[in-house]
Design brief:
By secondary structure, the chain is an alpha+beta fold. The chain is about 45% helix and about 20% strand. It has 29 helices and 33 strands. The chain has a 6-stranded antiparallel β-sheet, with no helix packed on it. A 5-stranded antiparallel β-sheet has the order 26-27-33-29-30, with no helix packed on it. β29 and β30 form a beta hairpin. α16 (about 330-350) crosses α17 (about 350-355). The longest helix is centred in the C-terminal third of the chain and has 33 residues, at about 870-905. The chain starts with 10 loop residues before the first helix and ends in a 15-residue tail after the last helix.
Length: about 900
């Protein structure tokens, strides 16, 4: 595998290599999808986990924002409404997303298919650029290592997070720019690549920045021109200055993203302190790490998953040779080992892993920066293969024997996630093939074909791994069927279109059918369910009794009062209730335990109900709402207080219902914790349960709420019949959406007693650890609801007001205010909202710690609300300044280079060095 002389390479040959590096990995993945059955070669789509729950809906939103009437910076389709700049710069800022504008909305899954192949191809292309431009890598094997990078385990397992692939496309250019910076070959590539990385995905750009810091230390210590500490520090300071310039150029993305995070997203994950008991807690053993380097090995992308670091078997043969051969300077090998160990310990040690994730543990994809390990390992392997003629063949055989011994050891441990026969068989086959090719006779004729033969073997390995991991993902989560996805979407679009044609006001609509988080985005409807960036909105909904967890909420736990308050005007239900399975909710779905509004119309498989009590999203209300505090763990009292404060009086719509002393079966009460939770332990073999006896109140429906900060799983039985699951999702029971929520218990005859039984059912679903921990909960709250009283009082609000949406970032509200009234809205408070009352700028006010209100004087008013956060224009102005500085410094460098060239003695033959800039 000898490195070709520079003079033997034609421009056509170079571009041919680049074209091959783009096409080969894309072709391999395309073949994987053909065999697996992705449409049009089967009925499947690439909609899986977050791609189904989130991203496909983001892409619909992107299309409508560019081609339709949605907005990229604010959306009422997010729970209650909220800024979407974090969504833009975290998921939608890739220039390649133009692909979604070329496909109709009815082919969004085909656009995702096409874009995935394009991004994998670009990963191969930029890696090829890096390999050809970086000194010491084997140019004859560019195609091999470009393909290994483009289809490494991280891409195959995490590739449905499409916005992450943009960062992988840019990573080789960032690293190449770092190398050029250290060698004094210019700073422009580094600044441009890093700035673009920040723009396309600020989250992974943070990880790239940490990796780039490590890489700078490795490369500067290995190849840098500096031999004294002072010169090294000066050059490092210059590196930081160029990184700061990249950040300045990307300020238009950074400031809006920071604004989004400041609303609470940073608080949704476990912090470094919360997630570790000791500073050096480990997440896995060193031996557990080894199988992750092998093809066809998949653990899970959930929190329990191990690092995804597979990047081919060829690097497993070459890396030991790199560290064993003295052709590479000792300081270089020591520095390289330091980077690999730093990355390994970052993944193994919990505290360091948390730092890489921005001091917040992710819910899934626990090692999102593991791409750095694979990239660095591939770079070292490419250097090794580039120096292959100087490598002793016997050492390669020793490495092969070592890995065969490792396979025997791993087989003894019998890892559950390794199919020993398949995995080890493929490993032996490919290892023997690579050793045979690398140790082939040195005669010129056969060696001419060895690079192609090696490339073919690598391509086959990548195909085998890609197909295996894709099937493993399907077994764990199931790729969504195309016909099912589009049929449901088309039916819901027809229903929501009919609602919009009947009612053109601003209101909220809830669909009791799960089609992924934020699936209201392609429907153009506004709801309560979905992804939340605002911690304040999350807390408000939880305080009102809705279910939710950290970064999302569910329309589950509603009452007529909360529906009316939040402007929920229409409910869409699927007629076939047996098929209405919300995999993240699992509340009882029968009509007996959900308040029913009057039927408006039916269409296809769906029926629409209209809420006659729904309030507008903004209306005049009494001033006591300005001072009402948020109350947690008491949703019935809080709902009474909110409506009373809006009306300016004290009122009870929910009335406590006192239960008899509970009856414990096969459980015993233990200690109480500091927050008031009671601990119940299972003591017998009977179904463990706690029963409460209550008395019916006729037409007044009964409700239950059980506060708890702990993970539990309960089944609720009423009069001995199953009623609903409570507290946790059955499908994803651990670290999932908490279903501490209000549960509608229905109406019961006045004066008649009925029982409510809480059964601890964790053990029934194989959750033995959860069952052994017992149940932690505060005392259940039982309340009845006076509908007649509520119906009479709710009509006093929302009069003499019209709310018109000109666009998502501009609302016009015409209203008449009385003495001591304010304009109350159910729009989440954000500093970006500006209020103009009769064209006079008026300060906005935050009420109940979360919602927007505007002070009013008595009389008629036109209130204009405009969403104009200062972070976006200021960020864009800073970016413009950064770009201007970039251009100015580049031009200054060009002028200095010209002067240096003119000043050089005639005929000296010394080319002027490329200026580094100021």
């Amino acid at each position: 595998m000898e490195e070709a002389a520079p003079g033997n390479k034609t421009a056509w040959g170079t571009w041919g290599e680049y074209g091959g590096a783009f096409c080969l990995p894309a072709l391999i993945l395309f073949l994987v999808y053909i065999v697996f059955g992705i449409y049009p070669f089967g009925g499947r789509t690439l909609l899986l986990t977050d791609m189904f729950s989130y991203y496909v809906n983001y892409y619909h939103h992107f299309r409508e924002a560019v081609l339709g009437d949605q907005n990229l910076f604010y959306s009422f389709a997010q729970t209650l409404g909220g800024e979407s700049m974090g969504l833009l710069f975290g998921n939608l800022a890739s220039p390649l997303n133009v692909v979604f504008l070329l496909f109709p909305a009815a082919m969004i899954t085909e656009a995702i298919f096409t874009l995935t192949l394009l991004k994998v191809g670009f990963c191969g292309l930029t890696m090829a650029v890096y390999l050809k431009k970086s000194p010491g890598t084997g140019r004859e094997t560019t195609l091999i290592f470009a393909s290994l990078y483009a289809l490494m385990g991280y891409v195959v397992a995490y590739g449905f997070n499409l916005m992450w692939l943009d960062v992988l496309i840019l990573l080789p250019l960032v690293v190449l720019g770092t190398e050029r910076l250290i060698r004094g070959r210019g700073w422009q590539l580094f600044v441009l690549a890093l700035a673009l990385t920040i723009v396309v995905n600020y989250y992974l750009a943070y990880m790239v920045a940490i990796f780039t810091f490590l890489y700078y230390l490795y490369y500067a210590l290995s190849f840098g021109p500096d031999r004294n500490l002072t010169a090294f520090v000066v050059r490092f300071a210059r590196f930081l200055a160029w990184a700061a310039l990249a950040a300045l150029c990307a300020a238009g993305a950074i400031l809006p993203a920071l604004y989004s995070l400041s609303l609470g997203k940073l608080n949704f994950g476990a912090t470094a302190v919360e997630s570790t008991q000791l500073f050096f807690d480990t997440r896995f053993s060193a031996l557990d790490f080894i199988p992750q380097l092998l093809p066809t090995v998949y653990t899970t992308v959930r929190s329990a998953g191990l690092p995804v670091v597979y990047c081919g078997l060829l690097p497993l043969l070459l890396l030991p040779l790199y560290f064993l051969h003295d052709r590479f300077p000792l300081r270089e090998r020591i520095a390289a080992a330091g980077v690999l160990l730093a990355l390994f310990f970052s993944m193994q040690i919990d505290f360091l892993n948390t730092i890489w994730h921005g001091l917040s543990q992710p819910a899934w994809f626990s090692y999102r920066y593991s791409f750095g390990f694979s990239f660095f390992a591939l770079g070292l392997s490419a250097r090794t293969l580039g120096a292959w003629p100087l490598m002793p063949r016997r050492r390669l055989l020793a490495v092969l024997v070592f890995w065969l011994a490792v396979f025997v050891l791993l087989d003894k441990f019998d890892y559950a996630y390794i199919n020993n026969t398949d995995t080890f068989t493929w490993c032996v086959i490919f290892f023997l093939a690579y050793v045979f090719i690398l140790t082939a006779p040195a005669r010129p004729a056969p060696r001419r074909f060895l690079p192609a033969l090696l490339c073919a073997a690598v391509a086959l390995e990548l195909f085998v791994n890609g197909l295996s991991i894709t099937r493993a993902l399907d077994e764990e989560f199931t790729y969504v069927d195309r016909s099912q996805y589009y049929s449901v979407l088309a039916e819901l679009q027809a229903v929501t279109t009919e609602i919009k044609e009947r009612d053109r006001d601003l209101y909220r609509t809830e669909i009791k059918y799960f089609q992924g988080n934020l699936f209201q985005l392609p429907l153009g409807t506004y709801s309560l369910s979905g992804h939340i960036y605002s911690a304040a909105a999350n807390t408000l909904l939880r305080s009102l009794g809705f279910s939710g967890y950290r970064y999302a909420a569910r329309y589950n736990g509603q009452t007529p009062l909360s529906d009316a308050l939040l402007g929920l005007k229409y409910i869409v239900r699927r007629n076939d209730e047996s098929s209405e399975v919300d995999v993240l909710a699992l509340a009882g779905t029968s009509a007996k335990n959900e308040y029913q509004y009057e039927q408006l119309f039916s269409q296809g498989e769906y029926t629409v109900y209209e809420n006659p009590y729904a309030l507008p999203l903004a209306f005049p209300a009494a001033e006591p709402i300005l001072t009402l505090p948020l109350r947690r763990d008491a949703p019935f009292i809080f709902q009474n207080e909110v409506l009373g404060a809006l009306l300016g009086k004290s009122a009870e719509y929910f009335t406590p219902a006192v239960a008899a002393e509970p009856v414990y079966t096969a459980v015993t009460q233990g200690f109480d914790d500091a927050k008031g939770h009671k601990h119940f332990l299972v003591t017998g073999e009977e179904p463990p349960s706690i029963s409460y006896t209550l008395t019916g109140r006729g037409d007044d429906r009964m409700y239950m709420y059980i506060p708890s900060d702990y993970v539990n799983l309960l089944s609720v039985y009423v009069e001995g019949e199953f009623y609903a699951y409570y507290m946790e999702s059955l499908v994803v029971p651990i670290n999932s959406y908490q279903h501490v929520r209000i549960l509608d218990m229905g109406a019961h005859p006045a004066g008649e007693e009925f029982t409510v039984e809480l059964r601890l059912t964790a053990a029934d679903f194989g959750l033995q650890e959860l069952a052994q921990a017992g149940l932690y909960m505060k005392d259940p709250q039982f309340y009845s609801f006076d509908l007649a009283k509520f119906a009479a009082d709710i009509t006093l609000l929302g009069q003499d007001v019209t709310v018109r949406k000109e666009r998502d970032t501009r609302l016009i509200i015409n209203t008449t205010a009385r003495e001591d009234q304010v304009l109350f809205t159910t729009i989440p408070y954000e500093p970006g909202w500006l209020a103009y009352v009769d064209d006079v700028r008026t300060e906005t006010v935050k009420v109940v710690d979360s919602l927007l209100a505007v002070p009013l004087t008595p009389g008629e008013h036109e209130v204009r609300l405009e969403f104009r956060p200062w972070q976006l224009p200021v960020g864009l102005a800073l970016s413009a300044g950064g770009v201007a500085l970039f251009i100015g410094l580049s031009l200054a460098g060009v002028r200095r280079a010209r002067r240096a060239k003119q000043a050089a003695p005639a005929g000296s033959g010394e080319p002027a060095a490329e200026a580094e800039g100021a």
